[in-house]
Amino acid sequence: MHVETSTLLLHTLYLIAIVAEAMTAALAAGRRDMDWMGVCIIACVTALGGGSLRDVLLGHYPLTWVRHPEYLGMTAGAALLTALAAPLMRRLRRLFLLLDAVGLVAFTIIGCKVAQAMQLPVSIVLISGMITGCAGGVLRDVLCNDVPLLFRKELYASVSLVTGGLYLLLLEAGLTANAAVPLALVVGLAFRLLALRFNWQMPRFVYRDDWH
Amino acid sequence: MHVETSTLLLHTLYLIAIVAEAMTAALAAGRRDMDWMGVCIIACVTALGGGSLRDVLLGHYPLTWVRHPEYLGMTAGAALLTALAAPLMRRLRRLFLLLDAVGLVAFTIIGCKVAQAMQLPVSIVLISGMITGCAGGVLRDVLCNDVPLLFRKELYASVSLVTGGLYLLLLEAGLTANAAVPLALVVGLAFRLLALRFNWQMPRFVYRDDWH
Amino acid sequence: MHVETSTLLLHTLYLIAIVAEAMTAALAAGRRDMDWMGVCIIACVTALGGGSLRDVLLGHYPLTWVRHPEYLGMTAGAALLTALAAPLMRRLRRLFLLLDAVGLVAFTIIGCKVAQAMQLPVSIVLISGMITGCAGGVLRDVLCNDVPLLFRKELYASVSLVTGGLYLLLLEAGLTANAAVPLALVVGLAFRLLALRFNWQMPRFVYRDDWH
Q1: How many folded domains does chain A comprise?
Q2: SS3 for B193?
Q3: Which of the residues C40, C46, C66 would you substitute to probe the A interface, choosing the one with the greatest number of A C-beta atoms within 10 Å?
Q4: B209–A42: do the CB atoms touch at under 8 Å?
Q5: d(CA C28, CA A178)
Q6: Is B48 buried (19+), middle (13-18) or exposed (0-12) by CB count in 10 A?
Q7: I need a labelling partner for B83 at 20 to 30 A (CA). Which of A12, A183, B160, C42 fits?
Q8: Which sequence ranges are marked TM in the entry (chains A, B, C) (predicted)?
């Protein structure tokens, strides 16, 4: 019963997160003047691509959206609503950033749990969380022909790593999933929101071949 | 016997389609000044990439070209011939557009049939058709560093969706595959050619962050 | 025992190669001003992406880095050291080119051996070698938003094809793996270094739509 509580929490956050990711992806598609079909496809790839890449790399079949095709409908529907109500969206920028951060930490812990259930080593559990949390945005940027934001800005991947690491540490320390999941979610979310608020950045590596 | 007729038709159209896709991909590679090896690789990825992505996402192994390596030779050979005979190609632009449309609808129905054979739900059957029909061109555009055309122009993905949907509806209505396949092929092809002829477009979603 | 000698040689070259690929990938990430996390991710994708793509396409699970997570640590560590010691790197340009060539031929033969162990046909064995040798660099270029170098410059993919082909021919001629592996490695390496030294290039296919 206890396990079900944290699973239910994660599932709820997952549904919120795929809708939020679909909406921000639709805005990215709109910046590239894509048509409505392109908007829907970019939204599905962004919202469900991280989990799909994880499952393909780990050989974890069938993929989430193959088992739950309704998620494709949810993300495509959210994307179309976003395109229709675009004038409203700019005012919701802060809400999107919050929901995107919720998605990042929720996706991360879901990805960790998938790898844990496959009995994979700790480092792969962390990587599985990072792929689930971050790869959708990378796929969006590649399809929109941008250098992925992940590699250049903000502590996105680092938040995912910290969230996954804390979750595993708390389990290791003897906490139940029902305690470890919400704690890791809250700390990860706080870390992400602080990074956004204070514009925390990692050091960059700037290299020029004409360096002397 | 009856089933074999539509299977044979699809297989013939499939072979025509991978050759046509290889030829148009070679022209795209030529626009980027790629060398002959690059031309062959882009051709194979474009012609066989949609089916490969579908099989990887659905866990449907072995992939088509692993079972039929001769398809790799066909696509690479067609690409090299295109590079050698490039001056002729411009005159064949209409023929290429026709063959590309044939490929789109044939790939779509083949993708639907793969998912049907795996007993997947209807929505995944449609998605499987769309991935098979459209993803090769997306991979080509990503490798050539373009924003995928699919997301911006023409009714490509929509034609795939309509073709797959009609095919499933006709089967649902009690038609045999031997009747449903050619009907869906012809309607899908007509839809695509009309969209090209009259430059039908979907509404676009144009979003700028400086919108006020 | 004899087989183990060539396996040990390949394994040693593999470890050298993933470190070298990680270091050149880190420099590519530095040219795009990526942060340290981005540098690590690009390094892992470049060094391990070719083998991963091969395994996903062939359905060969689990992937190398899932079985050996220490490789992820090695590549990420090498990438960070490169970022820290960047001023030294420019002097090592020749060494990097040499190690990259070692990686290309070693990855190629490892990829051939994976497909051989799966009893796949000769053409797929060659393709498996080429994917293992070349795809990491393509993924790096796509993530850095460049047209992949592979398709435009140098005899990279051709060297991979020649190395794999020679390896298979030597086995066919009755040589043991212990003889065929080092011979193919040396010839492939020499071919690559000569191509670099004398700037050998394949003919390019240059196509413009306004050609008349």
Answers
A1: 1
A2: helix
A3: C66
A4: no
A5: 43
A6: buried
A7: B160
A8: 12-29, 36-59, 71-88, 95-116, 122-143, 155-173, 179-198
In a domain, B203, yes or no: no
Tokens at A51, concatenated: 């989990």
CB atoms within 10 A of CB A201: 12
Cα separation, C129 vs C190, whole angstroms: 18
Contact B143 C157 (CB under 8 A): no
Q: What is the pLDDT along chain B (212 residues), one digit of tens a residue?
A: 455 788 899 999 999 989 989 998 998 888 888 888 889 999 999 999 999 999 999 999 999 999 999 999 999 999 999 999 888 877 888 888 888 889 899 999 999 999 999 999 999 999 999 999 999 988 988 888 777 776 666 688 999 999 999 999 999 999 999 999 999 999 999 999 999 888 888 888 888 775 43
Cα dist. A190→A11, A97, B62, C138, C189 in Å?
20, 12, 45, 36, 51
Reference C152, options C206, C93, C92; nearest CA is C206
Judged by CB atoms closer than 8 Å, whether chains meet at B151 and A31 is answered as: no
Ramachandran angles phi, psi of A152, nearest 5°: -125, -25
ipTM of the complex: 0.90
Give chain B positions within 8 Å (CB) of C123. Answer: 69, 72-73
Chain B residue with CA closest to C141: the answer is B143
Residue B42 located in a structural domain: yes
pLDDT over 60 at C192, yes or no: yes
Reported as a single tens digit per residue, the pLDDT across C132-188 is: 999 998 898 888 877 777 666 668 899 999 999 999 999 999 999 999 999 999 999
**Gap from C90 CA to chain A (nearest CA, Å):** 7
What's the whole-number mean pLDDT along residues A1-11? Answer: 78
Chain B environment of C127 (Cβ under 8 Å): 69, 72
Which residues of chain A does C83 touch, with a Cβ-Cβ cutoff of 8 Å? Answer: 205, 207
Residue type, C202: M
Inter-chain residue contact A121 with C41, CB threshold 8 Å: no
Nearest chain B residue to C151, by CA: B38
In a domain, A39, yes or no: yes
Domain that holds residue C158: 1-197
CA distance B37 to A112: 40
Q: What is the mean pLDDT of chain C?
A: 89
Compare all CA atoms of chain A with the CA of B145 and give the residue at the minimum distance.
Answer: A145
Q: Which helix (H) or strand (E) holds B13?
A: helix B2-31
Closest in A123, A158, A205 to C29, CB measured: A205
Interchain CB distance below 8 Å, A205 and C63: no
* Confidence at residue C211, expressed as pLDDT on a 0 to 100 scale: 40
Q: Hey, what are C14's tokens?
A: 């593999």
- Report the residue from C52, C73, C143 with minimal CB separation from A148: C143
How far C75 CA sits from the closest chain A CA (Å)?
14
- Judging contacts by C-beta atoms under 8 Å, the chain C residues touching residue A53 are none
